[in-house]
Amino acid sequence: MSRTVLQVNALRKEFSGVEVLRGVDLQVEAGETVAILGSSGSGKSTLLRCINCLEVPSGGSVWLDGEIMGYQLEGNGTLRRLTERRIAAQRRRVGMVFQSFNLFPHWTVLKNISDGPQSVLGLSRSDAERRAMALLSRVGLKDRAGAYPRQLSGGQQQRVAIARALALEPTLLLFDEPTSALDPENVGEVTDVMSSLAGDGATMLVVTHELGFARAAADRVVFMDGGVILEQGSPTEVLDHAREQRTQDFVRRSVA
Amino acid sequence: MGTPVSSEVRRVDTAVPPETTRVDVASARAPRRTWTWLLAALVAVLAAQLVNMLVTNPHFEWDVVATYFRSETVLTGVVMTLFLTAAAMVIGLVLGGALVVCRMSANPVLRLVSSAYIWFFRGTPQLVQLIFWFNIGLLVPDIGLGIPFGPVFVSGAANDLITPMLAAIVGLGLHEAAYQAEIYRAGLLSVDEGQVEAAKALGMTPARMFFKIQLPQAMRFIVPPTTSAVIALAKGTSLVSVIGGAELLFAVQEIYSQTYQTVPLLIVASLWYLIITSVLNVMQFFVEQHYGRGATRGGSTSMIGRFLERRGSVRDLGVERGNES
């Protein structure tokens, strides 16, 4: 009964001769939370960035809800890359949360969240702001609507960034190391919001170093190494009973 | 381990040598800066001498300065200088924008043409360009409007079409555009790459991303050099006197060529240039205030800013702006 939201087939990416992704196959079902682990340089972030076309893949394909991302099949079978405008339309269905938050510093918190619904989805200003306020209370920051991002702590900024990504009601949420830039005491407030999203049935793909979050909130854990998925399974299978030596080493290093 | 540490601190307290408690840095004086003060005194003497010379030297002819300061010829020249500055700046801002879009485009033809333009107009002197435009009739005797390589609909002799004023506006404007394009580019490059990625990830179209995310943030880095460019341009309009454009310098030259009061009339022109550039400085402050939103947590770095902050008016402005958005 579960529906496949994301389908990644034999995805490859190279940067000036260096292969960062070497054939990644991944499937994410609706409502599933998938945590991606792996040491730096294993290709985790590149995989996320290829999914919403921030990077152009070198080979393979990414499908969202049965539609190929970044390309269109023409009548005669030719595959043609879409223009930036068309890619922008596709990206609206994928929310992304960045390691460095990337809130728009010249806009208030409220404007950061309500701009997307207003300009991209065409909601009226009052509807967009009502949606933004609802999301702000969901991430526990209703009283900071009028603040500018620089006036907030890292954890608060990241929660605003999550609200901003949610405002477009995306089919899939991508998190690119959302807690790596935070002070240790701010990590919890962000992972709490993410866990609650996962519990509410959001479809999420989370690149993270927080093994605790992966264990508690992920339905599935994927371990990447050297540009491929080395193994995947339930949190217990991968974190406690890994088949591969490299996975075991990674888990041991991360806990220590 | 907690308790022993605090008891140790208490023991240090009791062991304070009595003479150290008699000293309190609150009563300390500033360090001696003998050499700095000697230098300052020397500078002050030189400055006083300069002021004295300005007042007592009869060759300044301050009464003549006063006579001509608001004379009709001079005021017409001021208006013309302001008009030339504004017209050339508008061309510079608009054409510079088009140039930077081409320069940063993915299309190699647009990139090459834009780079070649900037290379040429930055690489040749403004005065040469002005004289060149004034004499464009020697190169292109007839100027017309039509289809490239095709029929021409209207045309006229270049010598009739190109007045000193038109040559000045075109010459200054095209030159300004080359510099302005580079100012825009520097501003756009200063915007964090993450901002572009976040805008893309939110499904913003390239146009909206440019105007709503990149440009407003780039403005903080575009405004200061642009004001410098306007100031340079306002002064640069004096070059137009060479091709007979009736701007400020030309106006005072016209007067002193008859009265031979060269020095006082050059002072009249200088005073007007100073007034124009000072007004531009104040305008720069307010534009920077506008685009600095969300960028700093307070504290102005400009002289005007510190002056207004002391008077409390900046804080009021900031509050207003915070509520509005």
Concise account of the structure shown:
Chain A is 37% helix and 27% strand. Chain A has helices at residues 44-51, 84-91, 109-120, 125-138, 154-166, 184-199, 211-217, 235-239, 245-255, and strands at 4-15, 18-29, 33-37, 59-64, 67-68, 71-73, 79-81, 94-97, 172-176, 204-207, 220-225, 228-233.
Order of helices and strands of chain A: EEEHEEEEHEHHHEHEHEEHH
CATH architecture of the domain at 81-143 and 155-244 in chain B: Orthogonal Bundle
The CATH homology group name of the domain at 81-143 and 155-244 in chain B: MetI-like
Number of strands of chain A: 12
Shape of chain B: flat
Overall helicity of chain B: over 70%
How many extended strands of chain B? 2
State the CATH class of chain A: Alpha Beta
N- and C-termini, Cα separation of chain A = 40 Å
Amino- and carboxy-terminal Cα gap of chain B: 54 Å
Number of domains of chain A: 1
Report the uncertain regions of chain A. Answer: none
The main β sheet of chain B shows up as: 2 strands, antiparallel
Sheet-strand content of chain B, in percent, reads under 5%
**Do you know the CATH topology of the domain at 81-143 and 155-244 in chain B?**
MetI-like fold
Mean pLDDT value of chain B: 85
CATH level-3 fold name of chain A: Rossmann fold
Strand order of the largest sheet of chain A: 8-9-10-3-11-12
What CATH architecture of chain A would you give? 3-Layer(aba) Sandwich
Note down, in words, how this protein is organized.
- The complex is a heterodimer of chains A (256) and B (325).
- Chain A is an alpha/beta fold.
- Chain A has a single domain (29-52, 84-255), classed as Rossmann fold (3-Layer(aba) Sandwich).
- Chain A is built from 9 helices and 12 strands.
- In chain A, the strands form 3 sheets. A 6-stranded mixed beta sheet of chain A has the order 8-9-10-3-11-12, sandwiched between helices. Chain A has a 4-stranded antiparallel beta sheet with strand order 2-1-4-5, with helices on one face.
- In chain A, a hairpin with a 2-residue loop joins β4 (59-64) and β5.
- The N and C termini of chain A lie far apart (40 Å).
- Chain B has a domain at 81-143 and 155-244: MetI-like (MetI-like fold, Orthogonal Bundle).
- In chain B, strands 1-2 form a two-stranded antiparallel sheet.
- In chain B, α5 runs antiparallel to α13 and α7 crosses α10 (164-189).
- The relative contact order of chain B is 0.10.
- Chains A and B meet through α2, β8 and α3 of A and α11 and α12 of B.
